[in-house]
Amino acid sequence: MRLRPAVAPLVAAMTSLALAACSSAPAYNPPKIAAPARFKEVAGWTEAAPHDDAPRGDWWSVYQDPALDALEQQALTASPTLAAALARYDQARAAARESEAALYPTVGIEGAAARARVSRNRPLTNGSAVTYDNYVGGGGVDYEIDLWGRVRASVAAGKADAQASQADLASARLSLQAAVADAYFRLRGLDAQASLLASSVDAFGRAYDLTQRRHGGGIASGIDVNRAATVLGNARALVSAIASQRAATEHELAALTGAVASQFALSPAPGDMIVPAIPAATPSQLLERRPDIAAAERRMFAANVRIGVARAAFYPSLNLGAAGGWQSTGAALLSAPSTFWALGPLSAALTLFDGGKRKAQVRLSHAQYEEEAANYRETVLAAFRQVEDAAASIRHLAQQAEAQQDAARAAERTSDIALSRYRDGASDYLEVVTAQTDALTAQRSLISVQTQRMQASIALVKAMGGPA
C-alpha cells in the first residue's frame, strides 16, 4: 500500500508542532530536608552504597541461622503479601505503558466489500436503477498534537507512579524479611524461656519433695510445704503461658511464609542469641537508600506533573488525521486509478465555559501535590527517627543485658545458698521462696533483653532500608 503522499506531510506537521510544544507543569522543586552530619546515638557509621534500588542481598545471613535462612527464602517465594505487592507493581507498569502509547499515532486499517442497488425513484435520478459492487481497502492515522504538554505530563506521571510502585515492592519485601526475622527470634526467645522454665519446674519439684520429707519428719511446717507448692504451681502455669505464646508466634511465622498454620511447625531450639554487628549508613545516604522515601518522592513528582495536565485543559486540543487506500467497483482494486488519500482533518477543540470545573481541577492537583510533599517530609523524618530509635535500643540494651547478666548470676547464687541454708536448718523456707522467685525473674528478664537486642538489630536493618 502506497501512502507516502499522505504520510510525508503528516510527519512534517507532527514534527514541527512537537518541536514547538511546551509543558504546562510547574518546575519541580521538592522540599529540602537537611540531613544531619551523623546520627547522634551511635558514632563511627560506615559508608554505604546510596541507592534505594540496590540489591539488599540475604542480609539475614549475618545471624548464621540455617532455619532463619530457610524461612526467609520460603517467604520470598510464597508470601501472599509480597505477591500482592508484585501484582500492584505490574499494574502500575501496565498503566504507565498505556499512558506512553498516547505519544504515538494511532494507525488502523480496514477493508469492506458490498453489493448495492440504488432506487430508480431516488432524488436527482436519471430514471433507472443501478446495481453495483463496492470494494474498499485502506487505513488511517490519528494523532493528538501535544502542543501544551498534556500527554507528556501524563506519561511522566505514569512512569513516576510505576517507579513508586517498584519502591513499594522493595519496601514490602524488606518489611516481610524483617517481620520474619523478628518473629523467628521472638520464637527462639520463647524456646529459651520454655527451657528455663522446664529446668525451674524440675528444681522446684525437688525442693517441694524436700519440704514434704522434712514436714513428714516434723522438721518443717505445713507453711513451708505450701510455699514450695506455690512456687512450683506458678512455674508450671508459666510453662503453659509460654507454650501458648509460642504457638501464636509459630502461627504468625506460618502466615508470613505463606504456609497453613495447621501444617507448619518449627522444632524448639533454645540457645544463646548473639547480636551481630550491623554497619549503618550516614543520614544523607539514608535518604537515598530507603525505598519508602523513594516511593514518596516519586509520588510527589507525579503529583507535580499532573498540575500540568490540569493546566493544559485551558488550551485547545489539536488532532491531526490522515487516510488513504483503494476503492473500486470491480476487481481492479489494487491499481493506481483506484487510490484515494486525505490529509486531515486538523481539528481543534476548546472549552469556553465549564462552570469552574477546570479551575477546580487545577486547585485539586495543587492540593494533591501539597499532600504528597507533606507525606514525603513525614516519611523522611520518620526514617531518621526510626534509625535513631533502633541505634539507641541497640546501645542501651547492650548495657542492660550486661547488668541483667550480673543480676541473674547473683540471683542464682543466692537461690543455691538459700536452699543450702534451709537444708542445714539455718533459715526458713520463705528465704528459699524469695531467692528462687528472684532468680527465675532475673533469668527470664535476661532472655527477654537478649530477644529485644535481636529485634533491635533487625529494626536497624529495616530502618536503614537494608544493610550498608
UniProtKB/TrEMBL annotation:
Q: Which keywords, in A-to-Z order, does the entry hold? A: Coiled coil, Lipoprotein, Membrane, Palmitate, Signal, Transmembrane, Transmembrane beta strand
> SUPFAM superfamilies recorded for this chain?
Outer membrane efflux proteins (OEP)
- List the membrane topology term(s): Lipid-anchor
Q: Which residues form a coiled coil?
A: 359-414
Query: What's the protein here called?
Result: Efflux transporter outer membrane subunit
Q: Record's family?
A: Belongs to the outer membrane factor (OMF) (TC 1.B.17) family.
Q: Where is the signal peptide?
A: 1-20
Q: Name the Pfam families for this protein.
A: OEP
| Protein's UniProt keywords contain Ribosomal protein | no
- Record PANTHER family: BLR4455 PROTEIN, OUTER MEMBRANE CATION EFFLUX PROTEIN
Q: Where in the cell is it found?
A: Cell membrane
